[in-house]
Structures are given as structure tokens and as C-alpha cells.
Amino acid sequence: MGLFWIAPLSKYFQIIHSEPQKSISPVKTSTLLRVSIVTQWLLVPVAIVASFFLESYLPDPLQKWLQLDSGLPFSSLEVIALVSALALMVIAFVGSVGLFFLKKWAAWTYLASTLLGYLIYPLLGPTVEHSYVSALCDIATLLTGFTFGLAFFGNALRAE
User: Fold this and answer.
1) 55: burial class by Cβ within 10 Å (0-12, 13-18, 19+)?
2) Which residues, other chains included, contact 63 with Cβ-Cβ below 8 Å and sequence gap of 6+?
3) How far apart are CA 128 and CA 43, in angstroms?
4) What is the pLDDT at residue 121?
5) What are the tens digits of pLDDT across the range 66-107?
6) Tens digit of pLDDT for each residue in 23-39?
7) Is 27 exposed, middle or buried, given 0-12, 13-18 or 19+ CB atoms closer than 10 A?
């Protein structure tokens, strides 16, 4: 009943896959990987600076909540989460530097630190940020996925 769209799609994919596949050369893939990593490095400070400058453009109730939240002491769970997050950020940076130099171990380091970082997010509590900052963070997240795709499924990383 709802599968009427499969037939046209299967013909489309047959056309795509009937043509010879061209592989991206290692030089081009490694360049894409490096550009992705450098762009991520640049997006982090830009997002942090944008967050500080755009905070004043948030609606008054959100600004009041931010002021109230910043005045509260950290709980022990929040301190552990923040220390863990900072350690994982350092490990992720080391992994990204290794990926920039096309080291296979760095892909696993970067992946592990990213996944563990996502596990810590719920412990950090709610966040309020401007939509531009969210957009920058979303772009960085997309680039992280692109980096994983190139690192694990591309041919940029050679066996050591």
C-alpha cells in the first residue's frame, strides 16, 4: 500500500550504480579531512565569541534566567561533569591534531571522546543560547560527522 515509491527509486539507483564508480584519490580525501578539521577548530572560538556577544540579544526572561543560573553554586555532579568534559575536549583536540596528520589511532581517539562527550551532556543541565550560536554548533556537529565518514570510510588514513 505505502510502498508505491520503491519502484521509481530502484530504477534511479540502478542508473546511478550502473555507471563506473570513480574513487577519490588519497590526496583529495586527505585534503577534505584536513579542511574539515581546521574548519571545526575555527568554529569553536567563533561560537564562543558569538555566544558572549549575542547573549544581550536574548529576550529578557532568558537573560534573567542566565544571570540567576550563573549565580548558583555548582553541585558536585556538575563539577565532575565539567572536569570530565574539559578532559574529553583536550582528548578530542589531540585526536583532531592526529587526524590532521592522518594518523589512524586519532580517528578512534576522536570518536571515543566525542561519544563519551555526548554521554556527559545531560549532566551539564539546561543551556540557553542564541540561534546563531546554535547554527554554528550544528555546523560543527555536521563537520564532525563528515570527519568520521572520511576517517573511517575514506582512504585518507593509511595503515601505520
Assistant:
1) middle
2) 55, 56
3) 18
4) 86
5) 888 888 888 888 889 889 999 999 999 999 999 999 999 999
6) 655 457 899 999 999 99
7) exposed
